[in-house]
Design goal:
4 helices, about 80 residues
Length: about 80
């Protein structure tokens, strides 16, 4: 399974975050510099308020899960090698 994010989708998510945070001038500049007119039409119903923060939270959670899984797997491998039996 793979997740494909296009650059215009990422830009639109960041644009929405900027407007949510009240950074209207920065959002306006980004909207026009990134040519987000088409992306705004394409993603306007898909991207909910708080989407960027949600993506970061999920990414951090998955990173913690991966690191925990790695540590558990290595601890099991080490304990198996150090077995007294």
């Amino acid at each position: 399974m793979s997740i494909i994010l296009k650059s215009d989708e990422i830009n639109y998510i960041v644009y929405k975050y900027l407007t949510e945070m009240g950074l209207h001038h920065t959002a306006f500049s980004m909207f026009h510099e990134s040519n987000l007119e088409a992306a705004a039409r394409e993603y306007r119903y898909d991207i909910q308020p708080g989407h960027l923060v949600t993506l970061f939270e999920k990414g951090l959670l998955l990173t913690q899960i991966e690191s925990h899984t790695y540590l558990v797997a290595n601890a099991k491998a080490i304990s198996e090698r150090l077995s007294v039996v």
